[in-house]
Amino acid sequence: MGKAKEKKIARTIRRNWKDWVFYAVIVCIPVVQFCIMYLGVNFNSLIMSFQTYDVNTGVFSWNGFHNYIDFFEMLGTDRLWLTMLGNSTIAFLVAQFITKTLAIFFSYYMFKKYFGYKVLRIILFIPSIISTLVTVVVFARFVDGALPALFGMERGGLSNPDTTFFYILFYNVWIAFGPSLLVYSSAMNDVPPAVTEAAKLDGCGSFREFWNIIFPNIWSTYVVFTVATLATYFGNNLNLYSFYGPNADTKLYTFGYWLFRETELNKATMDNYPFLSAVGVCFTMILVPIVMLIRKCMLKFGPRPD
Amino acid sequence: MKLLQVNKAHISYRLKTVLTPFNIILFIGLVLFALSLLIPFIWGLLTSFKYRLDYADNALGFPNPFYWQNYADAYNNFKVTVPFGASSATYTLLGMAVNSVIFSLGGALIQAFCCAFVAYAVAKFSDYKLSKLLYLVVIVAMILPIVGAQTSEIRILNGLGLYNTMFGVLFMKASFLGTYFLVFHAFFRGLPKDYFEAAQLDGAGNFSILFRLVLPMARNIIFIVTLLYFIGNWNDYNVTLLYAPSVPVLSYGLYEFNLSNNPDITSTPHKLAGAMIVFIPVFVLFCAFSKKLIEGNLTMGGVKE
Questions:
Q1: Do B44 and A142 meet the contact criterion of CB atoms below 8 Å apart?
Q2: Residue B304: its pLDDT value, please?
């Protein structure tokens, strides 16, 4: 081997070695964090679901499938699960079909840069930068204070048990537009202007342009948002904690609220945590195939830009 | 004259294409929606200046007179008592604001730079197997819904001695997962290779290239991402509620304030004054950077975020 070649190899190895050190230094902390707080946490969740916890001694011990058996027994006997199933499903349907539909239509308006779009975009973005605790106070006091005074109602919509859930759903639609507006209207900006211009010259109206050109072009973004909404099916707590803390009426419970509430209330003792882990594992096992299937179907059978 | 006619024709064509029933319905819907957002906030701001008897008599009108004492009452009662070792500690609004700034700013910087560093490593050394794995991890974590991991997070933090510490919650933020990884990755991949080659010819090492060339070029994205993380952290009260009960942040203070039965602050004007105190700093930030935030156009290749 010639000296020049040897030198080149040595230089390459030295450079590779330096690259590896650099690589390791800049990724080490996030990778360690990932190993502990993602892999470790989820693995521990699985382990914990087969354990029981003694609050007095602070010791976890193996418990077989008892937590899972308890979960399935509760599913059959506790009516709260039915309430949570109903509320979580309604919450998902509202987010999927009302919030998303409105967001797409509003984004189309922004994309077309019609009259007042800049001001409207800022106003619609505001709730997403404000704490839900602030929007909840303003919304709740407005619904139960200003609206009854304005319309001469005896009591507000949130304090009337018959309408509370409706107003909670309304609140969740009311604050949900900011980020999705930006993403959808940015995705619409990727549609080649030549396509929309050609359609316009062919006499295509606004709705047809939206339905036949814009919507198929943003379909992949729509799928991403749908998957994200579905992924939060068991985690969506409808901001009930911001409204009521741990004291919401059981009629309003969603799976997400129940899980969060149980975790929060038992955080000092970790009592019930193995059972909650088993519930989390079951929910994940149910959700993963559904999410994957829906994503695949939507991408396969959805409209295509061409 | 001809020009005027052409202009007239153009305007009438524009009106015809813009003033369609679909667009008019959209416009009305948007205006109604925007009003439904603005009116409660304006009402809330005005009501926060009402004396509680004034509010009882007149829930809708202007404050008469403007009663600033609500803000003083809210400020004085904006405190939480948290467990601290074997005893307890009381935090005032200022104490919580300090925690909020450390958590929000520290967390935002950690989140943004962890994302940026890993994205840069993956983009620059894309032929490394680890890079491919890290990219895959981000995608899988985004579409894989994991439910109820908080219990395990608390146990792990307890095991590491990080539970209930500021360091612990900041460590939780040192993650590279999420959509902003893709934003950074798309940006770094799009940088011309000539820049790097020129810098290397000038004798710059990997660290020099990163800190003196790449990060300055990415400063706009880093700023927007940090700002978005900052706002998210500022509004996050779950961190105190679940992971650090002895390190109360301002949003947790508001959570306690809202649920408090203390007779000095149960009235609607008081509750709204408390909310406005937390709302104003973020609103000022938003007003200062709204254009950057909204028109920042964080792009992920074809998909914009």
A1: yes
A2: 43
